Amino acid sequence: MIVHTLKVFVTVAEQSNFSRAAEMLNLSQPGVSLHIRNLENEFGVKLLHRSSKQVKMTEAGLILYTRAKQILAQYDAATEEIHLLRNEVTGSLKIGASYTIGEYILPRLLSQFVNQYPHIDIQVKIANTEEIAQEIHTNELDVGLVEGEIEYPEIQVNPPFMEDEMVLVVPAGHPLASLRSVSPNMLHDLVWVFREHGSGTRAFSDHFIDELGLHVKRSFVFNSNQGVKEAVIAGLGVAILSRLVMIKELESEGLHNIQIQGQHMTRNFYVLQDKKSSLDTMAVKMFIQKLRQFAHDPDTFTPPSFH
């Protein structure tokens, strides 16, 4: 079917690599090459420039890529509408999530979602907020779940679906660890542990420090929440993280949560979609609906029984 061949072409174009495309499609590399060669023979033009390092689309290839994406989206929509006649939701769903959401919220949410909609093919990418926004912008993801502000005018930022509490954490034995709360001026000249730039958590920390005019004595940067946690536990410094990330450590007294007088330490979680996307598929609609149900009452989202 031509739809399958177009999917092969789109995957090669997006991955810029025949081997990665073959792996993603569960095809052999010669099989992928055959699909592309058949397309090029059909249109009578070169669609891809191949080199030892990468694959690039020709001008004709770019035209076909744009139209192929539309054709595949329309095909998926038709498939969903036909399956809805049998009360089934099908199709594919590519979800991107920032680390906090992807590691501490999304697994619980998906455990119920896939149980209710078993015929949806789901792919998940976890990265920092900036990376997820970029892949929404390039239409590589259907839905993005992030914290923090997004500056892409082409991206649709839906109303917040959840509020997240941020906490200042210090290691046991730190001079502030014995205090239940501190004034902002007590936070000068501390050593801080940060997430990387592009992270929503880093953006919150930077804004917090700038707003209070704090002087940072020294800082360390880690590109994961777990790395930041372990660095604080090891005594490298203090950090601001989501309470979702810290629940187990705070309960076991591995870390201390310090209240900051006069500060409202919360941020919002947002759903991102591409404004240019012509189709809001049923799979996307059902996922966002389930997401808002989770945000309203997360305690009802327990793992399915296997008995």
From TrEMBL:
Gene3D superfamilies given in the database record: 3.40.190.290, Winged helix-like DNA-binding domain superfamily/Winged helix DNA-binding domain
HTH lysR-type domain mapped to chain residues: 1-58
Keywords tagged on the record: DNA-binding, Transcription, Transcription regulation
Highest rank taxon of the organism: Bacteria
Record has DNA-binding as a keyword: yes
InterPro entries tied to this protein: LysR_HTH_N (IPR000847), LysR_subst-bd (IPR005119), WH-like_DNA-bd_sf (IPR036388), WH_DNA-bd_sf (IPR036390)
Protein's UniProt keywords contain Transport: no
Family: Belongs to the LysR transcriptional regulatory family.
Name by which UniProt lists this protein: LysR family transcriptional regulator
